[in-house]
């Protein structure tokens, strides 16, 4: 008891420091318990002094504490119990309920009597610091991630600018070259024709590039307008095919067409859908080597055969815009007289499978209430399968993004802006459909599949 | 990351010469002394983190301050180093430091605390942990020195510093100091983290230390 009294006098200055301070004798008896610790633990010094700290906090008897304290009681070097490895050396809760996180330094003090040593625990409350550090780390990680994305986007943009400039300039070279030759007026008729052909082809190519760019710009600004009508995809496919046949022939690529004549019609913008098919086809032709093969098929699939959940565009088509679409469907049905229109188209298709009159019928309207009671559940499916270069698994997730070809060297080898599939995806999604690409890897060919909801009005 | 022991040829090419030619026996004794301390530190760390940590001192060398600076600059360029330092006085005076390239310091902390590696920098909380680890390793070695010398020593509180090689040793009086450099490597499962354990002794007390070692050797 005398020792306790002496300790209170000798160490009273520890009541003046903003740290938890506690002095232990080598038998773990508490000799001093400062006012800061009283406040933190709500345990008064009257309760604590003279008791064994191991009785109240058994962890002090565990080897990892006991061994290190033993060095202190022998006058050894100071020991640190850091907050990450020992959060609560002397457990103390905060008003909000969480525990104070502590950083503890233990130093040895010569005992008041004899030649032994006491251990002085100085405890720093680092709760606030710990949480601030965590917050800071999270904020910084988020900022770094955002910066990474921004930089990536910037790189893609820079690369895109370079590609656009290159692609826009390329057709100009033959145009200028042949124009100069034409000016000489010394060309024989055959060469003259060839000059005009080349100029025309390259001007068209450039016009197409610019058209694609404008499309992207419209899509990105949400300004793309669709002219809704009832579309027969068989017709769309053959029209699109017409425009790539020459290119395919030039590479001796064999195209196999397989159209199911009984496929339902879809509602959409026929020229935009043709653009989609054209993009898929020209892509296939572009990336298929000479002598390769391309298959195009048009089939009908039920809802169960659809893509798994998570396909892009699916939710949008069936979710929030459903009501609006239903309303538009109804308006269109009234306008077009869907039921009779379908029959007309079917008949025509059977007679002359690949040409369909595109003009909306002005015949009498079928009663709207009798059609389209169920949500759209069946889909027409267009599949383009090529034996081309395929897509590596790494790149597959990105092929529908703007301005992406697998790498910039590919742009040089194959030309083009890498916009075709991105535009195709946007257009398909605007039609409530989905697009998917599959490939077993490089050199293994690619399968592109588009599914569009069948216009159920066409069933009547 | 691993460092090979610099060959005598390498040292000579940089104009580094060992300040004191210790006998093989003396070096062995010193090495054993340090290894006992480091072994004690390793078992403490094992208990704390609950998985096996191997702490080894593959070699030790004796340098002057200038030579050490050149040696460390050659090893780490002018990169920042994280150090935990313990100063002591008594029958021998000097300080002991555990030096890490900051990146491996951070790796070590992440492994010990089971946190994701995250960013390779050190913040206030990580620094606390590293200080504890450094403290355990240094205390192990200093403890075995203390036992050897059988005299009471005085210690200051361990401090953490992050600085370049030049600045870290700028305060050490070049003429009066001898440095024992011991390379410590932590092996935790497959991962190796290497730190340098550096003891700075004043020259006189180094002689005293050698004398004490001679007694046991």
TrEMBL record, chain A:
Q: Which portions of the sequence form the region Disordered?
A: 305-368
- What are the protein's UniProt keywords? Kinase, Phosphoprotein, Transferase, Two-component regulatory system
Regions of compositional bias (Basic and acidic residues) in chain numbering: 305-351
| PROSITE patterns, sorted | HIS_KIN
Q: Which InterPro entries match?
A: HATPase_C_sf, HATPase_dom, His_kinase_dom, HisK_dim/P_dom, HisK_dim/P_sf, PAS, PAS-like_dom_sf, PAS_4
* SUPFAM superfamilies, per the entry: ATPase domain of HSP90 chaperone/DNA topoisomerase II/histidine kinase, Homodimeric domain of signal transducing histidine kinase, PYP-like sensor domain (PAS domain)
UniProt keyword Signal, yes or no: no
* CDD domains, per the entry: HisKA, PAS
What catalytic activity is recorded?
ATP + protein L-histidine = ADP + protein N-phospho-L-histidine
Domain of life, per lineage: Bacteria
Question: What Enzyme Commission number does this protein have?
Answer: 2.7.13.3
Molecular function terms in GO for this entry? phosphorelay sensor kinase activity
Name-wise, this protein is: histidine kinase
Q: What is the originating organism of this protein? A: Scytonema millei VB511283
């Amino acid at each position: 008891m005398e020792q306790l009294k002496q300790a209170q006098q000798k160490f009273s200055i520890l009541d003046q420091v903003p740290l938890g301070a506690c002095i232990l004798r080598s038998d773990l008896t508490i000799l001093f318990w400062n006012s800061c610790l009283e406040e933190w633990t709500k345990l008064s010094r009257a309760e604590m002094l003279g008791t064994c700290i191991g009785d109240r906090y058994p962890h002090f008897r565990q080897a990892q504490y006991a061994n290190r304290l033993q060095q202190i009681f022998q006058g050894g070097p100071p020991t640190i119990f850091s907050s990450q490895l020992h959060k609560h050396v002397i457990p103390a809760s905060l008003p909000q309920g969480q525990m104070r996180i502590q950083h503890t330094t233990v130093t040895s003090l010569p005992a008041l009597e004899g030649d032994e040593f006491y251990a002085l625990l100085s405890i720093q409350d680092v709760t606030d610091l710990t949480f601030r550090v965590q917050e800071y780390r999270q904020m910084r990680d988020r900022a770094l991630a955002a910066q990474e994305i921004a930089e990536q986007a910037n790189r893609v943009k820079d690369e895109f600018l370079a590609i656009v400039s290159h692609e826009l300039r390329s057709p100009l070279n033959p145009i200028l070259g042949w124009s100069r030759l034409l000016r000489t007026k010394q060309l024989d008729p055959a060469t003259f024709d060839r000059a005009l052909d080349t100029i025309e082809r390259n001007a068209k190519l450039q016009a197409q590039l610019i058209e694609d760019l404008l499309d992207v710009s419209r899509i990105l600004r949400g300004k793309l307008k669709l002219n809704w009508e009832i579309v027969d995809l068989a017709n769309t496919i053959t029209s699109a095919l017409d425009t790539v046949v020459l290119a395919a022939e030039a590479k001796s690529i064999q195209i196999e067409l397989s159209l199911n004549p009984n496929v339902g019609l879809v509602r959409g913008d026929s020229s935009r859908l043709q653009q989609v098919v054209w993009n898929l086809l020209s892509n296939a032709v572009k990336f298929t080597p000479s002598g390769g093969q391309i298959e195009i098929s048009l089939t009908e699939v039920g809802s169960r055969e659809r893509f798994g959940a998570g396909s892009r565009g699916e939710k949008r088509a069936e979710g929030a815009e459903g009501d609006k679409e239903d309303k538009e469907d109804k308006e269109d049905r009234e306008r077009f007289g869907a039921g009779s229109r379908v029959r007309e188209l079917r008949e025509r298709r059977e007679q002359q499978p690949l040409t369909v009159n595109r003009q909306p019928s002005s015949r009498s309207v079928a009663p709207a209430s009798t059609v389209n009671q169920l949500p759209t559940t069946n889909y027409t499916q267009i599949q383009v399968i090529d034996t081309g270069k395929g897509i590596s698994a790494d790149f597959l997730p990105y092929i529908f993004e703007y301005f992406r070809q697998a790498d910039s060297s590919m742009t040089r080898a194959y030309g083009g802006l890498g916009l075709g599939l991105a535009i195709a995806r946007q257009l398909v999604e605007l039609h409530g459909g989905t697009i998917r690409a599959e490939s077993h890897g490089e050199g293994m060919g690619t399968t592109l599949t588009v599914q569009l909801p069948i216009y159920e009005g066409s069933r009547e | 990351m691993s460092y090979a022991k610099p060959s005598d040829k390498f040292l000579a090419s940089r104009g580094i010469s060992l300040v004191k030619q210790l006998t093989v026996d003396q070096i062995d004794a010193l090495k054993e002394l340090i290894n006992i301390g480091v072994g004690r530190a390793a078992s403490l760390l094992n208990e704390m983190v609950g998985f096996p940590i191997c702490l080894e001192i593959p070699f030790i060398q004796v340098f002057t301050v200038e030579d050490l600076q050149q040696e460390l600059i050659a090893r780490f360029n002018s990169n920042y180093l994280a150090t935990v330092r313990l100063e002591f006085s008594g029958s021998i005076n000097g300080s002991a430091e555990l030096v890490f390239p900051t990146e491996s310091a951070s790796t070590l902390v992440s492994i010990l605390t089971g946190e994701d590696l995250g960013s390779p920098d050190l913040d206030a909380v990580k620094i606390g942990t590293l200080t504890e680890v450094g403290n355990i390793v240094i205390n192990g070695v200093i403890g075995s020195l203390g036992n050897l010398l059988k005299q009471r020593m005085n210690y200051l509180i361990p401090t953490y510093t992050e600085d370049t090689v030049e600045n870290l040793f700028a305060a050490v009086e070049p003429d009066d100091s001898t440095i024992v450099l011991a390379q410590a490597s932590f092996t935790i499962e497959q991962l190796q983290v290497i730190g340098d354990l550096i003891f700075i002794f004043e020259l006189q007390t180094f002689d005293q230390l050698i004398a004490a070692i001679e007694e046991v050797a």
